[in-house]
Amino acid sequence: MYNDSTVCHPLLLSQGNKSEKGLCDDTTSAVVISAIILFIHTCLLLVSVGGLVYKLRMLHILQKEHKQVVNYLQVARNPALMVMGAIIGWTYTFVLMTRVLIGRKIYPCFIFSLIYYLAVPALSNTVILRCIRLLVLTKLNELKVRIGKRQYDLHATTSSENMKPLMDANVSLDILETLNNTPPSANNPLTTDTEMKELKVHSETSSVSSSSGLLKATNRTSLSALTVGRTSSIMSQFTIEPKDITTDKPLEDEMIFRKETLLESFERGKLISIMRFLVSSKFIFIYYGLLLALHILIFLIIGTIDYFNFQNTGGASSNSRNSFTIDSYLFSPSGCGTGSYNQNIFISYFAFYGFIGVLLLLFSFFTKRDVWHIKIEVIVVIFGWVFFIVLYAVPSLFTIFTTYIDYYFPWTITILIGNMWDTLISFTYPVFFLQRFKSDKKQHTESTPSVDSKLQHSKPSESSIRKILLNEKWNNLFLKFSEKCFACEDVMMWNAIEKFKTIKSEKQRRELFYNICNTYIRIGAPLELNISRKDFGIPEIEKIFKSLKDSTINFASKNGNVSPSPKLNISPKQTSTNPQDMSFLFAITPEIFDRIQTACEHNMLDNYTRFQASYEKQLEKELSILPKMKV
């Protein structure tokens, strides 16, 4: 029992070491090396977490000051995943090294045995989650681009001349009350939010039959533009024209919208919500929680069976390896050696999760190369793990390593070095080498204007970003580059606004206005913009969007035919008592999104600096854009 050469090498036995519970005594060198490894890994973890907290705080401060800085830690990476992966790797190191420091023969078996049930699932799934995040982010941005381009699918105008712009629509304003009980005039602009509430959007009241059409519109006069708001109101973008409700316009002039297919509706609704959830911190915590709960449950079940088996058999035979532990049981408070059953479970977990990891790695190879270095990071970390696993597994097949060298130099340290490699590449490197402030702080302060100064931008043609966006070739390249940055929303919105400005048909302009608000501006939109809502007049735009949605939106019926918009609830009494009531047509002018377009340009600056660095010579040659900002 105390001189088993299959456990302790004869050279160790000759030095007075004894074998017990399938274990031998550790040498002084093993204790010293274990202490050094644990110290290094602990320092690496503390420095990395401390650096992450500091950099995230600095990012928050700079963003509040409207200073443009490239965010390597939160756009493509998830701080929660970074911290969880590093802590799991350090925990593995802590258990194995303290086991050597305390003594393998006395270290609690129930703690050590958890390594065989949790180490592979926890460590491998950290890498798996990174692969999943990379794949989902890539597909999510492809989906965003697809949704963004789909908004241009406007319903064609239906007048007798199909290409003739239709400047009429049946969106009307019923003015219920006005300031001082006086009707609005062309010379009295509305100037307060209270006055804005006095306007309600309505559509015409009378239903239309096939036998009796509406009379032709007559006597149209133009009213001045509405001016609503304290500083620069969005309602100043609208003009009101009176329209006689007793018109004879055909139904083809009604406001109509294209019906989304089931697939399109699923993509912009549930699918994009699922993808956002898969890259969120909530998913990471739920995933780790379920994973650890499952494997702890497996450990408890197997440990319970092993305990009763150990009690019923009166203890395992001397150094028997056909068990979970040697001369002990999984829940033992004292030390234990590892039996073949534990090793088989460890290998099974490794094969299962390793197969998933390799499969996801193959998919990751075919993803677009991102500018955040996530793809390179995942590939480097995985190949590093493969190297260290092979370095550990192959020598462990020889008894000289398990019975002799392991007690001088704990061979599991090769796996622990893999842990530190993982933390260094996926955590420390992004925090300290990618996310920097000092070299860019002064430059960004001088070259990146604040939000207010951007709004006062005088000549759009002088903007380098505008030069790129107004060029079809470079616009497409910049959009693809923004996809790789996982931040395509601002470019898509900018292009949508440019399209909006070129539309002459009032019907199509309203439809694109609705599509833009529904895609980019409303809270929870699939491509919701990350801009200050109050600073850029979004609340006022949302009021118009809500009014348009409530009063004129009626998607196609289930058979796929396009139907006219419904009428608003104006009481028959009001119609009969005041048959000459005028409904008002508001025209959405092309300049309504100008401030938001400027905000999009401001948000593109960090992408633009990297884009310019990538195409510096071509941009200088084709667009005369000189290199100004470096990343």
TrEMBL record:
Q: Does the keyword Transmembrane helix apply?
A: yes
Q: Which residues form the signal peptide?
A: none
The UniProt entry, under Pfam families, shows: RGS
Q: Does the keyword Transcription regulation apply?
A: no
Q: What are the transmembrane regions? A: 30-54, 81-102, 114-136, 285-305, 346-366, 378-405, 411-434
* Residue span, RGS domain: 464-526
**Which key words tag this protein in UniProt?**
Membrane, Transmembrane, Transmembrane helix
Q: Which SUPFAM superfamilies match?
A: Regulator of G-protein signaling, RGS
The molecule here is called Predicted protein
Which species is the source of this protein? Answer: Naegleria gruberi (Amoeba)
> Lineage of the native species?
Eukaryota, Discoba, Heterolobosea, Tetramitia, Eutetramitia
